[in-house]
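Lab notebook page, bench 4
Experiment: in silico fold of construct C2
Operator: M.H.
Input chain length: 113 residues
Purpose: comparison with the prior construct
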Amino acid sequence: MEAAGLHFVPLVGNANYDYRRLGELIPELWTAVSPIDQAIIYAKHVFADRIIDQYRSIQQTLAAKNIDLVMTDVLFLGELPLLLNGKSRPPVIACGVIAPSWTDPAFSIFTGP
């Protein structure tokens, strides 16, 4: 990535978490009684709860560096405030694979505790 001139920037606050330890981070996962309950818990705690610190990470990076492009994963929701605030910004590209569609526990964090 860096050989191509791209730079990785780590997230700050609660947006920087270890996805392999979601059960510790979100104890509600252990009490989900159905796949729908589990999906709601993921949507709320893995994605929505992280938006503020994800956005803060983007703002800090944009303020510190001359950024030509913001590239994120398709489920990185911290870009939404950037897209909606109406201010001048670099282009934003979201790409990737949507892990919730995977059902193999060897590859997806969304296959249950």
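Observations: The radius of gyration is 16 Å. The mean pLDDT is 84.
Next step: discuss at group meeting.
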